[in-house]
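Preliminary data (for renewal application), adenosine-5'-diphosphate complex.
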Amino acid sequence: MPNSLNPRHAVYAGSFDPVSLGHQDIIKRGARMFERLIVGIGINPDKSPLFTPQERVEVLRELLQPFPNVEVACFEGLTVDFVRRSGAGVMLRGLRTLTDIEEEFTMTLANRAMANEIETVFLMASEKYSHISSSLVKQVAQLGVSSADEPLEAFVPREVIARLRAKFRKPEETGRIGF
Ligand code: ADP
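Predicted structure:
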């Protein structure tokens, strides 16, 4: 089968539940490297995410408006199948820690066994963001109170903060319950 995948087109896949400053940094850098970058939101029916696929698409589209060569889409199933359907020849990944390297190495070999025509390209996380993960963000949002010094500013783009706060707002804070 001829390889019709475009090596200048890349897919950056993940859960983005929610998108963090670390993800945003990889997307910005990827947008400079590739003609077209597709941010693929992987939907896993076995997981219960904080944000619905539609909410994740919405915030990513808002955030990525200034980047005309970046698209956002959802997918179910194997990432390599989504990459193929997108016509991209590259899978873009971010690397934070040694643990990431080990996991990504195994994943890349598995992906290569299934789709030898797709190359994986890794970008090292910026030192400013290498400690950030979506699960850490959710923990901080759940435990940290919203104040003048918003702790979430260090982890997620501004567009995500209000949405996170709304998810963890206590019923009495909504004003809808009470006497
Ligand atoms: P998962 O697929 O495990 O849910 P994520 O959606 O969080 O992972 O991340 C998708 C990709 O983004 C992965 O390649 C991951 O290593 C990378 N990534 C996640 N957080 C960061 C960060 N803070 N800096 C750089 N890359 C990151």
